[in-house]
Amino acid sequence: MKVTLKDLAKEFGCSVTTVSRALKDNNTISLELRKKVKKRAEELGYIPNIVAGSMRTGQTKTIAVILQDLRNPFFSILAKYIEEFASNQGYSTFFITTSELIDREIEAVYTAIGKNVDGILLLPNQKDTRSIEILRRYKIPHILVGRYFSNLDTDYVIANDQKGSYLVTKHLIEKGHQRILFLNSYMYISSAYLRLEGYKQAFLEANLPFHENDIIIVSTDRGEACEVINSIFSKKQEYTAVFTYCDVIAFETIFTLNELGYHVGKDIAVAGVDNIHSDIILPIKITSASYSRKDMAYEAVNLLIKRINEGINNESGDHYEHRVIDISLSLGQTT
Amino acid sequence: MKVTLKDLAKEFGCSVTTVSRALKDNNTISLELRKKVKKRAEELGYIPNIVAGSMRTGQTKTIAVILQDLRNPFFSILAKYIEEFASNQGYSTFFITTSELIDREIEAVYTAIGKNVDGILLLPNQKDTRSIEILRRYKIPHILVGRYFSNLDTDYVIANDQKGSYLVTKHLIEKGHQRILFLNSYMYISSAYLRLEGYKQAFLEANLPFHENDIIIVSTDRGEACEVINSIFSKKQEYTAVFTYCDVIAFETIFTLNELGYHVGKDIAVAGVDNIHSDIILPIKITSASYSRKDMAYEAVNLLIKRINEGINNESGDHYEHRVIDISLSLGQTT
DNA sequence: CTGTTAGCGCCTTCAC
DNA sequence: GTGAAGGCGCTAACAG
């Protein structure tokens, strides 16, 4: 069963305080006692109750990551690195998923605060900023990851989305494609907005006409892109290439085009963003805008821990930090 | 800043207990007061401190999932469902990764216990059973997921690994393959052992000779299977099919064979286990043994919560439950 | 209906 | 060197 400081104190006939200090190697306790106590604690399998300790110290050594969906490899890989870096710095990690639902995001924030986390990494749904307001009110250190609000300044770590999208579109245009279907995500998501900007930028630069109708909004829910591709490509149309908001949508696109009898990489080009392949080798490597999720996680965790420590030392640090991860083009077999 | 019961009590000039009860809609408190307190709590943004409450009640409404690597889609999809089901039942979820290192598994168990989790889902590394022993000593409810120990009875939820492997191998044999390279995982992992049994079973049943050398052990670390496939298939060899421990290894196999100039699905067959495609649509669908990760997560979470509740009600329940998820063959483009 | 007391396990402060 | 007292925020048991 559970072993507490009290149990140890009883054994040694001393006070809980003494045991606590002995285990912490506090030099106000005789070396002999320290040794004996530590040995006995080991034998009994004493595990310090961090939760109890946190009531006094205020620190739980826990962070929460609020994100959309762990099924999507983009998020799960990011999650992997976040957990790894946090763990290396002595922090445990809660993951709370929202399925892109704003109410669940708010719930998630309440849960995280109720569990006394020291800080939060938030991949916001962006439908509104309520969750940020709650975090501010409660003064919980928090960093946005992957997305930011143009009308609300915060700390954030994002990728250079516009550049990535621009590079991919430019590549497709250079390959001779003039009508490029763009399966984008919802425009209130900052990365979707920026990726559209990059797409437009490449068209503008190439002096090609830009068609508003070539942009279709899809979610990343399993199968949604399949349906859209199916309905467009089973009819006559003019697209010779498809550019997608992210690799997961590109995967569905490629799968469906294959099923429709297309030969992706020859008859039609497909490219995405995220370059999942750099973390998980998949059967085929697709052309994609590539940036390091590892770096992104690293920056996010470090910035968050920095903010947590500032809070503890009561430093003001009233300016927000914005970190942008560079992005490049990674060619694959699909363009 | 933080709002506590004390703050509310001060406002109303009543005791903390009264406020606590009012917020819990306890009918010993006058309806009027209950309403007023709840309204004010809402206004002030009161968030109950679950951690503090847990010190008295003993329940943190938190579980930990100890698993190998969130980058692997198999684990991340399982993680997604676990988080979802746990969350639906009011539990938060810690994920702690071990990278298949037994020392990190032990560390993970200590961390989880130190954070007072109510229960643990463990995907064990199986190099030894120390972590289970610790969990037993501390009487922490725990369920093994995906793997079990043949020499140590516990609660567990696994897939029917032998059947899955048997079905895939049988399918390959029926397609005319006689020399099937098997990229398996380490034999101390129960699922690897069972998948080998299934493979052997199919050969035996078909009266085909079984070659010990056709089995090669690889880890799921990124790129390891690529290297093995490269070294085997760049030389002359007799294999017309490759069967892999899991889809992630199959993906690497297919990618590498493509690079070597093979046409997977025509020149050579590849099949795996997990059927990731059922959760994430990938560019190609591979032949794979399929079972529901959703069911697996559901069973695991429910069994764990059942055990947690038994612990609270001090029921004995000294028999272990074993749940086996059924598995079937899912055909793809690669065989 | 409401309040008081006590305590979960730990740590900090002050006293000896 | 060591201990006692107090408190983190909350809730359960017992009073009234």
Share of helix of chain A, binned: 40-55%
The first-to-last residue Cα distance of chain A is 61 Å
Q: Which strand order spans the largest sheet of chain A, edge to edge or round the barrel?
A: 2-1-3-4-5-11
What is the H-and-E element order of chain A?
A: HHHHEHEHEHEEHEHEHEHEEHEE
* CATH topology term of the largest domain in chain A: Rossmann fold
Count up the domains of chain A: 3
Specify the CATH architecture of the largest domain in chain A.
Answer: 3-Layer(aba) Sandwich
CATH homologous superfamily placement of the largest domain in chain A? Response regulator
Please report the total strand number of chain A as a whole number.
12
Task: Please report the two chains with the greatest interface, counting residues with C-beta closer than 8 angstroms to the partner's C-beta.
Answer: A-B, 60 and 60 residues
What would you call the shape of chain A? elongated
Architecture overview:
The structure is a homodimer of 335-residue chains. Chain A starts with a helix and ends in a 5-residue tail after the last strand. Chain A is 44% helix and 16% strand. In chain A, α10 crosses α11 (247-259). The first copy, chain A, has twelve helices and twelve strands. Chain A has three domains: 1-46, 434 Repressor (Amino-terminal Domain) (Orthogonal Bundle); 57-158 and 295-326, 3-Layer(aba) Sandwich (Rossmann fold), CATH 3.40.50; 161-290, Rossmann fold (3-Layer(aba) Sandwich), CATH 3.40.50. Chain A has helices at 5-12, 16-23, 31-44, 50-57, 73-88, 102-114, 130-137, 161-174, 190-205, 224-233, 247-259, 293-312, and strands at residues 62-67, 92-97, 119-122, 142-145, 156-159, 180-184, 215-217, 241-244, 269-273, 287-290, 322-325, 328-330. In chain A, strands 2-1-3-4-5-11 form a six-stranded parallel beta sheet, with helices on both faces. In chain A, strands 7-6-8-9-10-12 form a six-stranded mixed beta sheet, with helices on both faces. With 335 residues, chain A is α/β, with parallel strands linked by helices. The structure holds a DNA duplex (16 and 16 nucleotides).
